[in-house]
Amino acid sequence: MKNIKLSLIAIAVIGLNGCLLEGDDGTNGTNGVAGQDGTNGTNGQDGSAGSTSLMVQTNLIIGDTNCPNSGVKFDSGIDADISGTLEPSEITSTNFVCVPGITEVSSTQLLTSLNNQWFIDGAALVSQNKNTWLTATSGVGAQSSSGDTDVAQQVTSYETTSPAQKSAFIEQLKGSAKNVILFVGDGMGVSTVTASRILEGQMQGQLGEENSLSFDRFPFAGLAKTYNVDAQTPDSAGTMTAMVSGVKTDVGVIGVDEDIVRGDCSTVAGNELVTALELAELAGKSTGIISTARITHATPAATYAKSADRNWEDISDMPEAAVTAGCKDIAEQLVNFKANLETRFEGSSVDGIEVVFGGGRRHFLPKDATFNSTDAASAVEGDRTDGRDLTAQWSLTYPSGSYVFDQIGFNAINTDTTTHVFGLFNESHMQYEADRANDIAGEPSIAEMTAKAIAILDNNPLGFFLSIESGRIDHSHHAGSAYGALTDTIAFSEAVAMADEMTNDEDTLIIVTADHGHVFTIAGYPKRGNPILGKVVSVGQTEAALAADGQPYTTLGYTNGRGFQNLGNEVTDADVSYSMPIAAGRQDLTDVDTASAGFHQEALVPLTSETHSGEDVGIYAKGPGAFLLNGTNEQNMIYHVINFASDLSGQVNSTQ
């Protein structure tokens, strides 16, 4: 039997609630005789009453410095001022009763993951990459030729003098990442990274090509193969499941392995996978999820939900057969995450996801206009047909937590005292970065959400796991708008820079990657510094180059999709194109400002929506264990690097 060692949350202390315990008073003295029967109180003198001893009992939360797995603090002392309250100055003794951690979980609770061939191969690749590092490195740390001191310092931090020392050092790195932050740019293929890098540079007055996005400067990089088990070109549900569970799976399913049948509720049981976020919860760490898409959308949902279909975001999206069979919608799984995880892992006690920021209010509210938020875009904001208000249910589960839905509520969050926060900033997806200023009630940027989340999560001395998705890069590409995709990627890069600034390379692993790419190209032969959103101007020329049909063409374009739109600078919402006719094929761009916010690039093949692509995507990493992300990897390898660096699953023991 296999056992997996975990630093789990212990069982809550039974019957110990916060209260005030009083010592017995001394009895009144008689005829000057000292009072008798005083218990911890001083004897009464000359007929006076004895002093009162008090004991204050305080329940400790998980992650407390003195009792990481929770427990009880006992403060005792003498109520010298007879106020009935034990003041800090009156405390004479403090003791702790700490809850011990659960140290084993049977293989039956993790069997789906441990016995899956994708999981086994990923674990083996970690070992292989460790050996590759040992073979490739000499005793002298490699210096960067770019002059980037951050890169040089990161690489030379792995300096050792012998293979044996290097091997021992690598083993010491296991578990050294107290914190893990996984950034996912949804749809952020290599061409998107390149074009965004150039656009950011040009917005700063540079030629552009020499610029670097924040994660371009990370010291370690590799590639991920994005295919799903059943698909050459993947979707976000299968790819994110691979990244956070270590197991590749099919298109369109969330948190389950490839033995699932999409849309068949009965196939979920027994095929559930364990995610890095769930293990972090069980290990006593704080956890958070951020997305600029709906928080029930495929990428964020893969961290916490188990679903036969990514589209089951609320009960109104589910077939009656699935509801009758007992499957739960994704929104309900998020709100009931704590209870669900404790049920799956018998004997565990977790405190739930501390930070949730994103869009998608409609999936948590009943289909009743009386529940509309102040910035509702629809006459009836909610979609739920079961009459339940899941935001209210969340508040009952976390009575000391904060539910917020606008910029004012977000700004009011106290990061020092907040234990749980649930932020749903839009009825559906959050605004594109280019359109964010136009939001009715205001929305925080992805960088602001990242900063707020880290400031809350790092209150836990055991560390945290945080997943951050820029979901609307993908949506703008689907709509055929390079401008929207690139400006959202730049905002994403700013969030990565914020996280890097707020954390320490010595104890925080940051991984930046994408789930898949898009059929988005950088083409032609434009000269250096040519506007990346502009028409191709050849080297040595000042006028736009002409194609064989005698018309100018843009550097950026799509292989398929809805095609050309010229909506000017007033239109910043890329999705407006869906209300317009498909206009694929060549257009006369002679008098068109292709750099405007509302310009949509030409597309070759007409489709109702531009599609994902199947090529590899980049992985960029820094911090403990980042050196393992090199070369070309199966996408599920990302989980195994996270697991190695933070030792979430602990040591796996095998017996025959």
How would you characterize the overall build of this protein?
The chain is built from 17 helices and 24 strands. The protein is α/β, with parallel strands linked by helices and about 650 residues long. It has a ten-stranded mixed sheet, with helices on both faces. The chain has a four-stranded antiparallel sheet with strand order 2-3-4-5, with no helix packed on it. Helix 2 crosses helix 4, helix 5 packs across helix 16 and helix 15 runs antiparallel to helix 16 (about 480-500). The protein is globular, with a radius of gyration of 29 Å. Residues about 1-50, about 140-160 and about 650-655 have low confidence and may be disordered.
What would you call the quaternary organization?
single chain
Structural class: alpha/beta
How large, in whole angstroms, is the Cα Rg?
Answer: 29 Å
> Helical segment tally?
17
Helix content: 10-25%
Low-confidence stretches: 1-48, 138-158, 651-656
The mean pLDDT is 86
Distance between the termini: 7 Å
Largest sheet: 10 strands, mixed
Widest sheet, order of strands: 11-12-10-9-13-7-14-22-8-23
Query: How many E-type strands?
Result: 24
Question: How would you describe the shape?
Answer: globular
**Portion in strands:** 15-25%
What labels describe this entry?
656 residues
Task: Draw up the topology in text.
Layout: E1 2-5, E2 19-22, E3 53-60, E4 71-78, E5 91-98, E6 104-106, H1 111-114, H2 117-136, H3 149-156, H4 163-173, E7 179-185, H5 190-203, E8 220-225, H6 236-245, H7 276-282, E9 286-294, H8 298-301, H9 320-324, H10 330-335, H11 337-344, E10 355-359, H12 390-397, E11 402-404, H13 407-411, E12 421-424, H14 446-457, E13 464-470, H15 472-479, H16 482-502, E14 508-513, E15 517-518, E16 520-522, E17 556-561, E18 565-566, E19 599-600, E20 603-606, E21 612-613, E22 617-622, E23 631-634, H17 637-646, E24 652-654
Parallel strand pairs: 7-13, 7-14, 8-23, 9-10, 9-13, 10-12, 11-12, 17-20
Antiparallel strand pairs: 1-6, 1-24, 2-3, 3-4, 4-5, 8-22, 14-22, 15-21, 16-17, 18-19
